[in-house]
């Protein structure tokens, strides 16, 4: 029988192995220590209880309860599985809309950030269709995140032809820089731009909105996002529990910080369902 104590002790051990040392790792360890004597059998509800406690430090911690799971706990860190190219192509790399509104506004909706090598043709096609538009609305309200390289690709369409450093991702061993790609002269879009966000904007979806906002390249409209700025790995803690364990954090090059805990705070706060209409009105003012 796997208990809550078993799960939280193993999670704390993996945090020591993966998460950069510092106050946040110590704080997360202290949160998990509250469950050190909890011998209740682990359930989906108790996993959610541990998650909510951990979210006070890292909004990205997740405990996925799999009642029929039989695989043994991991002893070595694993990576995220590669995406199925056919599945990515079938959903057009999560580019769910690219159209021109009646008033000349280009509306691009991207609901995820698939691996950049698969996503680039669809992303580039969507932004190419925005050429000649009156203005641009980028809808990230359902964007649950994904590949930071795809964040850089999209940001590059809006931040200019020359490469721009967006961030550093800091783990236990290194600091990895993320830059937008160089573009041909005149290749970037210079349209007035709004970005729509909400509670469904998460992780690297938040990163894209945050980086554009920090560089004053777009007005952000909608609801405050959840605030998940860590990078995580999938680690099996028990046959029935798969965790998302923080392994790195993001530092925006412009602000020196990130959106962890605070979320991306819109310039114009409105209900997510009203964000498109509010953005169009604001762009007319």
UniProtKB/TrEMBL annotation:
Transmembrane stretches, start-end: none
One Gene Ontology MF term: serine-type peptidase activity
InterPro entries per UniProt: ClpP/crotonase-like_dom_sf, Tail-specific_protease
Domain named Tail specific protease: residues: 80-271
Cross-referenced Gene3D superfamilies: 2-enoyl-CoA Hydratase, Chain A, domain 1, 3.30.750.44
One GO BP annotation of this record: proteolysis
Highest taxon of source: Bacteria
Name of the molecule in the record: Tail specific protease domain-containing protein
């Amino acid at each position: 029988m796997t208990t809550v104590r078993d799960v939280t002790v193993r999670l704390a051990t993996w945090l020591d192995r993966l998460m950069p040392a510092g106050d946040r790792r110590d704080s997360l360890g202290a949160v998990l220590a509250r469950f050190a004597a909890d011998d209740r059998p682990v359930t989906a509800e108790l996993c959610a209880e541990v998650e909510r406690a951990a979210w006070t430090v890292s909004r990205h911690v997740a405990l996925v309860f799999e009642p029929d799971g039989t695989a043994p706990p991991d002893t070595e860190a694993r990576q995220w599985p590669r995406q199925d190219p056919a599945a990515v192509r079938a959903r057009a790399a999560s580019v769910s809309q690219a159209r021109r509104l009646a008033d000349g506004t280009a509306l691009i909706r991207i609901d995820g950030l698939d691996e950049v090598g698969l996503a680039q043709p669809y992303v580039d096609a969507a932004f190419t269709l925005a050429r000649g538009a009156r203005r641009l609305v980028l809808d990230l309200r359902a964007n649950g995140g994904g590949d930071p390289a795809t964040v850089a690709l999209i940001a590059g369409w809006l931040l200019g032809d020359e490469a721009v450093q967006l961030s550093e991702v800091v783990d236990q061993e290194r600091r990895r820089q993320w830059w937008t790609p160089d573009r041909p002269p005149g290749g970037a879009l210079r349209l007035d731009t709004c970005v729509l966000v909400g509670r469904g904007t998460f992780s690297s979806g938040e990163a894209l909105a945050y980086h554009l906002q920090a560089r004053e390249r777009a007005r952000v409209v909608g609801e405050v996002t959840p605030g998940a700025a860590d990078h995580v790995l999938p680690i099996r803690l028990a046959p029935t529990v798969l965790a998302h364990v923080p392994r790195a954090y993001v530092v925006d090059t412009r602000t020196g910080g990130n959106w962890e805990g605070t979320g991306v705070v819109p310039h114009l706060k409105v209900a997510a369902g009203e964000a498109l209409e509010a953005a169009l009105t604001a762009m007319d003012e």
